[in-house]
Design goal:
It is a single chain. With 205 residues, this protein is α+β, with helices and mostly antiparallel strands. It is built from 6 helices and 8 strands. Strands 1-3-2 form a 3-stranded antiparallel beta sheet, covered by helices on one side. It has a 3-stranded antiparallel beta sheet with strand order 4-5-8. α5 runs antiparallel to α6. The longest helix is centred in the last third of the chain and has 19 residues. It is globular, with a radius of gyration of 20 Å. 26% of the residues are buried.
Length: 205
Amino acid sequence: DGRNAAIVELLAETDFTAKNERFEQMTKLVGEYALKQSAGAIALDDEITKMVDDVRLTTGENVQYGRGHKLEGGGQTAYGTYIHHDGKTGVLVQGEGDVNDALLRDVAMHIAAVQPRPVGVTPDDVPSDIVEKERKVAMEEATASGKPQEIAEKIVEGKLRKVYESLALLEQPFVKDDSKKVKELLPKGASIVSFFRWQVGEAAD
């Protein structure tokens, strides 16, 4: 019904195996299986292990299940997906409201391409450890320049605002038209709920 979506990562040692018809079919089956599970992280279980082992034994290659995640939505949920041409970077975006697949696919392509990579939808979603690390560095720089404490703190807050904007998806300049921010692409009342950007071989978040 278009309200649910799943993203899965499967690992192969060579491109030859990754492009093999059996591997591609197995990936499709694992994805369909993940879609039937409860929302959240999809752990490796006996069913996934069997599907992966069938290909591993056939190819003689160390094929593995990496990770998976299922998203659930309501009546106004839509999803955008994008897989880079090398098959090693995949993005899943969940939107709500007056959004369509084409718009969300553009957002997914943005997430795959843009640098720095977004780590949250809004500035409030930027992880506190990243904020504190940037705050510490900015304060050390401001203090080293001999600025009074009050001025140094204002400088730090200004730099942190830029950090928030650079790492928050909605505040980033759109990769296809940097005169607009991603949030300006969304129709009134529409929102981005969450996104996943996975690269093959990365450690899971």
